[in-house]
TrEMBL record:
Stored Pfam families: SusD-like_3, SusD_RagB
Domain RagB/SusD residue range list: 312-588
Family: Belongs to the SusD family.
Location in or out of the cell: Cell outer membrane
Domain SusD-like N-terminal: 57-205
Chief location category: membrane
Protein's organism: Arachidicoccus ginsenosidivorans
Keywords for the protein's UniProt record, in alphabetical order: Cell outer membrane, Membrane, Signal
A cellular component term, taken from the record's GO annotations: cell outer membrane
Entries under SUPFAM superfamilies matching the protein: TPR-like (SSF48452)
Protein name, as recorded: RagB/SusD family nutrient uptake outer membrane protein
Length: 589
């Protein structure tokens, strides 16, 4: 936690249409009181919090059984090999999250005094909306702090993190103990409740007073005033739907095996009910976005985005990046002028079933190890470049075998694959990375996808009510997974016999749901945390496949070196040294 917040007068306004240019104060410093008459300056405190939101593609997959990297100095590679400590922790969000919370607390403390607009109704609406954003963002950062740093103390108590809801000054007591996980959960939900009250589900213009949500219609009956504050100009700011999605993430984490404790009130039903609110808003099971599995490469769809509109798959995203080739440059194979950073494992490839829906280990699958990529789940070819794939602007054939005679072969050069595979997901194959003629495409990074929330419901509903139980809803875990596998092309003709067999027990359905989550969310930063909250095996050896003509050889690529206490991340050692009331998670030094 920061002892002093230095307040700068130069804030870049969030993308909501304002282009005001400031004249800086002497020495570029402003006082808190100047917030009250300078709304752009006041909004800057929210902007700083938005900037601190952790990136979606953090590449922590490198430390799982899904991927390795050819970047020998990568922090997650070192983490997975035994170098994870309380002083060397690439998952540490402590300082950045609490820094953002400081800005949010300062904003919440002072925002009612800010003069946002001359129009009285607009001024009131701006105050309400931005406070809702601040409460929602504070809940978001608390969720990340709990995901990354909650755990059991030496006495067996499930601990969260210090709860800080007031702006801290140089005179504040920073030696604050960790609250229990249950207390943190309560605080997150309290902030999300506040966000729910203050925010519309979505930022859309209304054409008549009758369409203004009731809680805001008491303030204005004028569509133009409502639209100015709550309309399309505010898209991509935190809204009510985002708050419901963060509640789902928080509830799922709280219900997971790693966080089971007598003092944790979280249940699977809580998580299922939270996810159902989002799914119902979308339109139910049938509204699962048809092209959601390829959200990253739907070129026409992405190219037509404007005015902050989301694709059907996206609940929240970062801003568009035009003519961009960063992901491709980092992850294309060498022959396509890429660095080949993300190398999927054979472990992950083996998790993709056959196109009849059966796992490759099932005798009914028809899998032939001599032809490992034949008749596989269509998502395999969408997400992973394997030996013989045709990729890039010229549909070049990629040969990954160690004897292939190309730079794409296993361990041929520093940018070559280590596993026999390259990542294809997140990439747009119409991007050309040839230095002689680089051509980018429009990209965006998600923050929350609908598919994630559908999978959250499936997992939680199965645990709460079994494969076909629905609770108070009209759909089950089975219904969700059937829709997801159907979208993937696994139930040709409407038949998915393997899914039907998994209806027999919660355990079989659990394994299937976990696997579907692994496939649908691969390379998006979920696997690292899913394995921990499930308390699954962290030390599976990452393997590859060396394919040279008819000679196919499985290879061990990278061992993992985790111990059981690493299901939970550490409190930063620097914080433990400074504040003796902070208790470290069990096992960490």
């Amino acid at each position: 936690m920061n002892k002093l917040l230095l307040i700068s007068g130069c804030f870049i306004l969030f993308a909501c249409g304002c282009e005001k240019i400031f004249t800086p104060e002497p020495e570029n410093l402003k006082t808190v009181e100047q917030m009250y008459t300078d709304p752009a300056y006041a909004q800057g405190f929210l902007v700083n919090a938005y900037r601190s939101i952790p990136t979606y593609y953090d590449d922590c997959d490198y430390a799982t059984d899904d991927a390795v990297t050819n970047q020998k100095s990568n922090a997650y590679l070192k983490l997975a090999s035994g170098a994870w400590t309380a002083t060397n922790n690439p998952t540490n969000l402590w300082q950045s999250a609490y820094g953002a919370i400081q800005y949010l607390n300062l904003f919440l403390q002072n925002s009612p005094k800010v003069h946002w607009a001359d129009d009285t109704a607009a001024d009131q609406l701006f105050t309400i909306r931005m406070r809702g954003e601040a409460f929602g963002l504070r809940a978001l950062f608390m969720y990340y702090l709990l995901r990354n740093h909650a755990g059991f103390g030496g006495d067996g108590t499930l601990l969260g993190v210090p709860i800080i809801t007031e702006f801290q000054t140089v005179n504040s007591d920073f030696n604050v103990p960790r609250a229990t996980f249950a207390e943190c959960l309560k605080q997150v939900y309290k902030d999300l409740d506040s966000a729910d009250v203050d925010l519309p589900f979505d930022y859309e213009d209304v054409s008549s007073a009758a369409l203004i949500p009731e809680r805001f219609s008491k303030i204005t009956q004028t569509p133009e005033v409502y639209n100015r504050v709550m309309g399309h100009y505010s898209r991509q700011l935190y809204n009510g739907l985002i708050a419901k999605s963060i509640r789902t993430r928080m509830a799922l984490l709280a219900a997971s095996p790693a966080f089971q404790s007598p003092n944790n009130p979280g249940t699977w039903a809580d998580a299922a009910n939270a996810a159902a609110t989002v799914i119902d808003y979308k339109g139910g099971v049938s509204a699962l976005p048809a092209k959601g599995a390829t959200y990253y490469t739907n070129t026409t769809e992405i190219g037509n985005l404007s005015e902050g509109i989301n694709p059907p798959e996206i609940i929240w995203r970062e801003n568009l990046s035009t003519n961009n080739s960063d992901e491709e440059s980092n992850n294309y194979p060498p022959s396509l002028f890429g660095k080949g950073y993300m190398n999927p494992t054979q472990n992950l490839v083996d998790a993709f079933p056959m196109n009849n829906g059966y796992p490759i280990t099932n005798s009914a699958s028809g899998y032939d190890p001599k032809y490992p990529y034949k008749n596989r789940d269509p998502r395999l070819a969408l997400y992973i470049i394997y030996n013989g794939s045709s990729e890039g602007v010229n549909a070049s054939t990629i040969y990954t075998g160690s004897a292939s005679g190309t730079d794409d072969g296993i361990n041929i050069k520093e940018t070559s694959t280590r596993t026999g595979y390259y990542m294809k997901k997140r990439l747009n194959m119409s991007v050309n990375c040839n230095p002689a003629s680089v051509t980018g495409q429009t990209h965006y990074k998600p923050r929350i996808r609908y598919t994630e929330i559908y999978l959250d419901y499936a997992e939680a509903a199965n645990e709460a009510w079994g494969p076909t139980g629905t609770g108070s809803h009209s759909y089950s875990a089975y219904d969700i997974i059937k829709a997801i596998r159907g979208r993937a092309g696994l139930n040709s003709g409407g038949s998915d016999p393997y899914l039907e067999s998994c209806m027999e027990s919660k355990e079989k359905m659990r394994d299937l749901i976990h696997n579907e989550r692994r496939l649908e969310l691969c390379f998006e930063g979920f696997r690292f945390w899913d394995l921990r909250r499930w308390k699954s095996n962290l030390n599976t050896i990452a393997t590859g496949l060396d394919v040279n003509g008819d000679v196919i050889k499985n290879i061990d690529v990278e061992s993992r070196n985790f111990t059981d206490y690493m299901y939970y991340g550490p409190i930063p050692y620097s914080e433990i040294l400074k504040y003796p009331n902070l208790q470290q998670n069990k096992g960490w030094k």
